[in-house]
Here is the input.
Amino acid sequence: MRALPSWEYRLETVPAPEALALLGREGWELVGLDGGQAYFKRPIPSYRERVTLAQRQRALQTRPESDAVVPRLLHPEAYRVFAAAGHTDLLTICDRGFPVPLGPERCDLAVADDLPTVPDILRLIRALFPPDRLVLPAEVREVAPQRVPQLRSLLPHTTFDFVPHTEFKELAATARATVRTGDSVPYANVIWVG
Here is the structure.
């Protein structure tokens, strides 16, 4: 049996035609006139409709230029991997050539060369899932010296630990999951520590 709609009501002075059209687009129906007063009604939106309306309102609001839009991680599997990680959990974010260990869960985000990169993933997760520290292969400082300052600028308050690549691979095998990127920078791997 379908529930009968609940109504909300609105009383206004008789609006101008432009305002009347806007009220109609918002779902208000003119149900009566009394002198200079107009009576409107519309069904009370469901919870989902109210959420959708609130989202629409936020999207339509103009933002000041200083309020830059922060990109969000949309990939549901990758989001779940980071959201499930707890304190001291390890998550490997690796380049396309890293030998992904067999034990940890694998989340493959590699689409093409350098799409996405390890810094791209860190940029997307840093606000929601800030790491306690990052572990990097020590060899990155020699092979790709530009990568370390790039990562430090993304995560200025994060501790960076450097270990030999062989030890890095051993740690990666104990990680909760491995997120593989299309990064082509050698030794571009990091272990995110929750």
Observations:
- The first strand starts at residue 7 and ends at 13.
- The chain has two domains: 7-60, 76-193.
